Amino acid sequence: MVSFTEIYKSKLVSSREAVSVIKSGDWVDYNSFNGRPISLDKALAQRKEELRDVKIRATCTTYGMPEVVKVDPEAQHFTYNNWHFGALDRKLQDHGVCWFIPVLYREVPAYYEIYLPVDVAMLQVAPMDEHGFFNFGIQVSHARAIVDKAKIVIVEVNENMPRALGGYNEAIHISEVNYIVEGDNPPMPQIPSPAATEEDRKIASYVMEEIEDGACIQLGIGAMPNVVGKMLAESDLKDLGAHTEMLVDAYVDMYEAGVLTGRNKNIDPYKIVYTFALGTQKLYDFINNNSRCATYSVDYTNHPNIIAKNDKVMSINNAVEVDLFGQVNAETSGIRQISGTGGQLDFVTGAFDSRGGKSFIALTSTYKDENGKKYSRIKPLLTTGSIVTDPRTSVEYMVTEYGKAILKAKSTWERAEALINIAHPDFRDELIKQAGEMKIWRRSNKIS
After folding, report:
1. What spatial distance separates the first Cα and last Cα of the chain, rounded to whole Å?
2. Is 320 annotated as a binding residue?
3. Sequence-distant (≥ 6) Cβ neighbours of residue 168 within 8 angstroms
4. How confident is the model at residue 196 (pLDDT cuts 50, 70, 90)?
5. Is 254 labelled a binding residue?
6. 140 marked as part of a ligand binding site
7. Which member of 199, 245, 396, 417 is catalytic?
8. Is position 245 annotated as part of the catalytic site?
9. How much is the pLDDT for 448?
10. Is 25 annotated as a binding residue?
11. Chain-wide mean pLDDT for the chain?
């Protein structure tokens, strides 16, 4: 009988010994989100003077500044690339030490299969089980695609990593691992929901009007989607389901309140389906060894054809700005990358294709600059340099604290009218003027 314990011992090395396999010019992949290696990152940073042009891929830095970036502020030795930006990644980009990789999130596993070299993969994982499997934990995402392409696979064991049940593609077997490192066992980063404003709560109330019993819920990143989740937990709705990219604390609230059963889902009935989780310890404890949850790789959770197999999919996401043509920017401030495309367009598409489904893009009507000056988020044209996250042809519901606008099937002048109707009243006259100059306004248009 195979002794996985003996095999484990034979592959167990120090962090420094493990990273000794990395050479100048290599492509090194870290696992995403809370799966980023910690001990291995430190050991690699210590080899700075020995290495040049080591290129690293990661996803949304949650554990604080990577050591490879900290020791190399001029990016002479390590090039840190990122599939999705969080707050720290934005700052690193501003200092010229982090580069963004544009993606459609559902496609990332295919990028590895078709395009990407991986010399060394380094992933933080849960402890090995009795069958020889290391669970990827709360960030399955594209981990399987990374290790499938890697020439060398190194896992860093963290006893605090929740064991997230599948689904599929949630684990790697010891026979596929080259080296094992026992890490420092850091706790999972605690990422509470952002504080909600009165505007967020008003927007959420408009979205709530559209949600029915049996709806299947996807919540995006940010305060407003989480407010919807809290309202759903406190509602009298019945038999909601979950099929989402990111699992957050609000889903635990919905489940514990009895409104989230998944009973009416056409696929993965009763299961809370997700590809990564970010939240507090409450969420991580809920996920650990919980058969109610099912984690899948992102090419399953985010594929519009899979999403649409469930009825009444409600996709709720944030945006930075929208123009009068209906183009949505949810990821940049001008040319500055602040987030990423992620899976927003995946779910916008999948929800619309779902029978009875709806997709909502929400944003507050205004924002203020550092000097307190107020600006409209609904603009004649997107800010110069801004990225179109959702093309105008894909957008269904736009929501602000002033109401809802349905953009599907509307002409350019109808779109302009609908969007100006939900803009802040202080900016409506100027938007009407601009729409006229852009030839997307009719004299008979009515503004409430």
Report:
1. 76
2. yes
3. 296, 297, 300
4. confident
5. no
6. no
7. 245
8. yes
9. 63
10. no
11. 96
CA 370 to CA 372: how far, in whole Å? 6
Check if 12-182 and 198-437 are the same fold: yes
Domain boundaries, the chain: 12-182, 198-437
Q: Is the pLDDT score of 222 beyond 90? A: no
Residue 135 has pLDDT above 90, yes or no: yes
pLDDT, tens digit, 9 for 90 and up, residues 344-359: 999 999 999 999 999 9
Contact 78, 95 (CB under 8 A): no
Choices 3.30.2290.10, 1.10.1740.10, 3.40.1080.20, 3.90.980.10: CATH for 198-437: 3.40.1080.20
* Predicted structure pTM score: 0.96
> What's the chain look like in SS3?
CCCHHHHHHHHECCHHHHHCCCCCCCEEEECCHHHCCCHHHHHHHCCHHHCCCEEEEECCCCCCCCHHHHCCCCCCCEEEEECCCCHHHHHHHHCCCCEECCCCHHHHHHHHHHCCCEEEEEEEECCCCCCCEEECCCECCCHHHHHHHEEEEEEEECCCCCCCCECCCCEEEHHHCCEEEECCCCCCCCCCCCCCCHHHHHHHHHHHCCCCCCCEEEECCCHHHHHHHHHHHCCCCCCEEEECCEECHHHHHHHHCCCECCCCCCCCCCCEEECEECCCHHHHHHHCCCCCEEECCHHHHCCHHHHCCCCCEEEEEECCEEECCCCEECCEECCEECCCCCCHHHHHHHHHHCCCCEEEEECCCEEECCCCCEEECEECCCCCCCCCCECCCCCCEEEECCEEEECCCCCHHHHHHHHHHCCCHHHHHHHHHHHHHCCCCCCCCCCC
Which CATH number is 12-182's, of 3.40.1080.10, 3.40.50.720, 1.20.1250.20, 3.60.150.10? 3.40.1080.10
Rounded CA separation 265/243 (Å): 9
pLDDT at residue 122 greater than cutoff 80: yes
